């Protein structure tokens, strides 16, 4: 399998698919296309018909879009979703909510693992997104927390989908208390999260569109 991703410092969508692959233990070749270069569109289009990454290539299968990649992986690795119908429905609902929502958080507090930006990007809309995410995490931990340290106990697609928020909370110093804070700490300590973070810290490229002004 081959996963095409973008800069680890900035590419929140790439992180989701990459973590799902790490979570199932599937070896894969990582192809990194740098954002904001003159040839970026052509480089991405050489792999991904949408012109966006991540894109998974598995023999004759090409899958673009993070959630589609996770669903495709889950056909081979069903452990990516929780065990019961009700829990899978819950997990899918919060993944879809992340995939199509939280636009204020995403635009006002872009993922930027290398930078500490405490307190930046806070507006009523991004604060509302943060409050909803904390409520989602608290609800999951209350219902499934006894089974393990992640949203549905064991690491699942839901954790992969919320992982970029964890790096945002780290950079922008969003510090939820209680169960949500403990979940955030668990995620930031996850070996694959640390591996991705080390990759981001080793990068030097700057993408101005994803940088908040000094
Ligand atoms: N909904 C898509 C979003 C993918 C996306 O927007 N990817 C960005 C990088 S994080 C991209 O490919 N940008 C191309 C560019 O800026 O040229 C997904 O879930 O994969």
TrEMBL record:
Keyword annotations of the record: Transferase
GO molecular function: glutathione transferase activity; maleylacetoacetate isomerase activity
Keyword match Zinc: no
EC category: transferase
Domain GST N-terminal, chain residue ranges per copy: 1-81
EC numbers, comma separated: 2.5.1.18
Record-linked Pfam families: GST_C_2, GST_N_2
GO biological process assignments: glutathione metabolic process; L-phenylalanine catabolic process
Gene3D superfamilies: 1.20.1050.10, Glutaredoxin (3.40.30.10)
SUPFAM superfamilies hit by this protein: GST C-terminal domain-like, Thioredoxin-like
PANTHER family: MALEYLACETOACETATE ISOMERASE
Protein name, per record: Glutathione S-transferase
């Amino acid at each position: 399998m081959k996963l095409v991703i973008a800069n680890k410092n900035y590419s929140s969508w790439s992180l989701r698919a990459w973590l799902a692959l790490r979570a199932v233990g599937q070896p894969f070749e990582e192809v990194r296309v740098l954002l904001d270069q003159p040839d970026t569109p052509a480089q991405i289009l050489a792999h991904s018909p949408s012109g966006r990454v991540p894109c998974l290539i598995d023999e004759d299968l090409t899958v673009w879009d993070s959630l589609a990649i996770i669903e495709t992986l889950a056909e081979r690795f069903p452990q990516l979703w929780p065990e019961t119908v009700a829990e899978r429905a819950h997990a899918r609902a919060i993944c879809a909510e992340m995939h199509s929502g939280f636009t204020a958080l995403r635009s006002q507090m872009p993922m930027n693992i290398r930078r500490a930006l405490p307190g930046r990007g806070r507006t009523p809309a991004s604060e509302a997104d943060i409050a909803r995410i904390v409520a989602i995490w608290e609800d999951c931990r209350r219902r499934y927390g006894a089974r393990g340290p992640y949203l549905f106990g064991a690491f699942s697609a839901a954790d992969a989908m919320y992982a970029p928020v964890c790096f945002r909370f780290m950079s922008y110093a969003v510090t939820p208390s209680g169960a949500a804070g403990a979940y955030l700490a668990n995620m930031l300590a996850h070996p694959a999260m640390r591996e991705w973070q080390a990759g981001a810290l080793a990068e030097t490229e700057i993408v101005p569109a994803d940088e908040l002004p000094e």
